[in-house]
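Most newcomers find our protein records easier to grasp once they have seen one. Sequence and backbone structure share a record, each on its own labelled line. Nothing more is needed to start thinking about how sequence determines fold. As an example, a complete record with its sequence and its structure tokens follows.
=====
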Amino acid sequence: MSALRILVPVKRVIDYAVKPRVNKAQTAVETAGVKHSMNPFDELSIEESVRIREKKSFPGGVDSIIAFSCGPPKSSDVLRTAMAMGADRSIHVETKDGEEIEPLGIAKLLKAVVERENINMVLCGKQSIDDDAGQTGQMLAGLLGWAQATQASKVGFEGERGVVVEKEVDGGTETVKSELPVVITTDLRLNEPRYASLPNIMKAKKKKIDKVTAEELGVDLKRRLKTIKVIEPPPRQGGGKVEDVDGMIAKLKELGAI
């Protein structure tokens, strides 16, 4: 029985508590001088990988947990956080500051890493909170020809190779079964990520981050889409009060809603 070799993509994004602002040129969101952290959905993926190991929920055990990031030099910070949470080592494809890589490019990089590292499970966040594309996991499964389970709220195992995933759907949950290898994208109900303790943060400084280039992985990261303009959404107009139901109906007719 083979053990799990888990790959967890993590992304450095503007912290979820920060209100994004459009830059003066209206070409992108302002990132200079703004607090960044690990994408919250990726935290769930790291946590779940570590829990699978700790709880010994897979019969063959976990051989390794590898964190991966494609981003600017400062992305090493989120890789260190991932290793402090329990990942064994990391892989970093470094890009220039401000350079955005499309989901398909990331999926191609992940495919190359999966093949190079002999990965049999990929756990990734269902989306990143900066572009909200929600495409990378699905594209990766398509490129690999693997089964996929999206928006996981529970991950379990059955037999030597079976994977059982409870996933979020409109109006409730749905349970799907597959066999390894598999791509799973994580949703908020899956777990509560741990805080990295100071001793683990110190240990993470000694763990290895492999620096590789897209060229070494045989991937072209050329963009296929161009952002023309980024603008703030128009401010919402305040609501109004009506005295009774008749007043509400009259107001709705006035607005053309009925």
